[in-house]
């Protein structure tokens, strides 16, 4: 559970203590009942403080009304917390028979819980159960005249999907899919010569799926992840993109370079070039027989980059870091403003990393 304590979100202290409720029948789920736009998680603590202020200053209550709240990113915010009487269910009796969990879901704007939010609601219910809550999972509208928690969230409540030990997604249409993208994006992109998106195939697809699972975005997999990109991969990747604050078409579940690099820590498909290897090649090949290769593949990547930058003729892109390649590298160093021994044609880390941008990855 991604738990955010009162201290962590900057809660005011309650005006007076909350009556204790050590055990009860279960949990009631609520929505905001006001327009709400999904945003970046960085704004969620401030939103909690805003709601607390309106409850304490506007409604005159002693504290934030709910026991827990779950933002659209799946974080569980501590409200009154466990074992406390809430002020959300409508009457004192109802407040004692069920704990109250608020989802950051509006009556317009963000109206359907995200997959992360659904998982966060399950976490919140599991947490309350571990501290005395009964087995019931209800909506505010159950037993009290209100629209709360709104249609999509109430459907989730009644579907059984909030059951903490529910195995897999609930039957029927997946309620966590955002309404604006009912059909997952089905197109492919090529990044560093490797394909991603619906229909793509290869070990890079498996690597993405495994990284998504590791980081908690694997909820749409019923099998896998595997080497064939399916709608489940797209939906999981979209959850990951939304967690980074992307919205709309930028969160359609098809990778871009930036999110892919963030997810994996590197971009697959880029060759690796060792600085030590190309330095060794630049020191060895010029004195060896014509065409001698010390680290041919890595020298080739550097030579191709030098040729692309206009410092080496294509015919000398041959994997041998010979005299012409050293001279070309020196010319490249001078073009960066290096002089003297800093422009001796032996690669240094900074010049090599600059040359590598978008082409290869420099390692030690
Ligand atoms: Zn409510
Ligand atoms: Zn959040």
Descriptive overview:
- With 364 residues, the chain is of the alpha/beta class.
- It has 3 domains: 3-159, Lysozyme-like; 188-264, Muramoyl-pentapeptide Carboxypeptidase, domain 1; 272-363, no CATH class.
- Helix content is 35%, strand content 11%.
- It has 12 helices and 12 strands.
- It has helices at residues 6-9, 44-58, 92-97, 115-130, 151-159, 203-214, 231-243, 257-264, 275-284, 296-308, 323-335, 349-356; strands at residues 3-4, 26-30, 35-36, 68-70, 76-78, 98-103, 108-109, 136-139, 188-191, 194-197, 272-274, 361-363.
- The chain has a 6-stranded mixed beta sheet with strand order 1-5-4-6-2-8.
- Strand 4 and strand 5 (76-78) form a beta hairpin.
- 39% of the residues are buried.
- It binds zinc ion (2 copies).
- One zinc ion is lined by residues 41, 44, 71, 73, 75.
Q: Radius of gyration, Cα only, in angstroms?
A: 28 Å
Q: In the residues, how many domains can be counted?
A: 3
Order of helices and strands: EHEEHEEHEEHEHEEHHHEHHHHE
Proportion of β residues? 5-15%
Q: In total, how many beta strands?
A: 12
Which regions are unreliable across 5 or more consecutive residues at pLDDT < 50?
A: 167-181
Named once each, the bound ligands are: zinc ion
In the CATH hierarchy, the architecture of the largest domain is: 3-Layer(aba) Sandwich
Nearest-integer average pLDDT: 91
Q: Given the structure, what is the number of helices?
A: 12
Give the CA-based shape: elongated
Biggest sheet overview:
6 strands, mixed
Query: How is the CATH topology of the largest domain named?
Result: Lysozyme-like
Kindly, what is the distance between the CA atoms of the first and last residues, rounded to a whole number of angstroms? 38 Å
Helical coverage, percent range: 25-40%
What structural category characterises the helix and strand content?
A: alpha/beta
Strands of the biggest beta sheet: in what spatial order? 1-5-4-6-2-8
The CATH C-level name of the largest domain is: Alpha Beta
């Amino acid at each position: 559970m991604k738990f955010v304590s009162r201290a962590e979100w900057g809660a005011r202290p309650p005006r007076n203590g909350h009556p204790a409720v050590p055990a009860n029948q279960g949990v009631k789920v609520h929505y905001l009942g006001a327009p709400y736009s999904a945003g970046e998680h960085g704004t969620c603590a401030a939103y909690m403080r805003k709601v607390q202020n309106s409850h304490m200053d506007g409604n005159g209550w002693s504290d934030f009304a709910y026991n827990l709240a779950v933002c659209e990113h799946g974080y569980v915010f501590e409200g009154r917390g466990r074992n406390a009487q809430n002020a959300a269910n409508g009457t004192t009796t109802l407040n004692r028979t069920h704990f109250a969990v608020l989802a950051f879901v509006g009556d317009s704007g963000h109206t359907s819980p995200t997959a992360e939010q659904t998982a966060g609601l399950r976490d919140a219910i599991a947490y309350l159960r571990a501290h005395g809550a009964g087995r019931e999972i209800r909506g505010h509208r159950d037993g009290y005249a209100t629209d709360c928690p709104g249609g999509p969230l109430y459907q989730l409540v009644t579907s059984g999907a909030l059951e903490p030990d529910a195995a897999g997604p609930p039957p029927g249409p997946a309620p966590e899919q955002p309404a604006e993208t009912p059909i997952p994006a089905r197109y492919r992109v090529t990044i560093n010569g490797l394909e991603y998106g619906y229909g793509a195939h290869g070990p890079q697809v498996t690597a993405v799926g495994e990284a998504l699972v590791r980081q908690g975005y694997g909820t749409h997999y019923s099998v896998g992840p595997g080497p064939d990109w399916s709608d489940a991969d797209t939906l999981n990747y979209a959850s990951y993109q939304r967690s980074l604050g992307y919205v709309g078409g930028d969160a359609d579940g098809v990778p871009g370079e930036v999110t892919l690099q963030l997810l994996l820590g590197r971009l697959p498909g880029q060759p690796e070039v060792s600085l030590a290897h190309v330095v060794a090649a630049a020191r060895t090949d010029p004195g060896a027989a014509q065409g001698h290769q010390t680290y041919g593949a890595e020298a080739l990547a550097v030579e191709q980059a030098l040729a692309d930058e206009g410092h080496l003729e294509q015919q000398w892109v041959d994997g041998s870091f010979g005299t012409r390649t050293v001279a070309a590298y020196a010319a490249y160093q001078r073009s960066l403003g290096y002089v003297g021994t800093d422009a001796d044609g032996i690669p240094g880390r900074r010049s090599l990393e600059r040359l590598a941008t978008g082409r290869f990855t420099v390692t030690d």
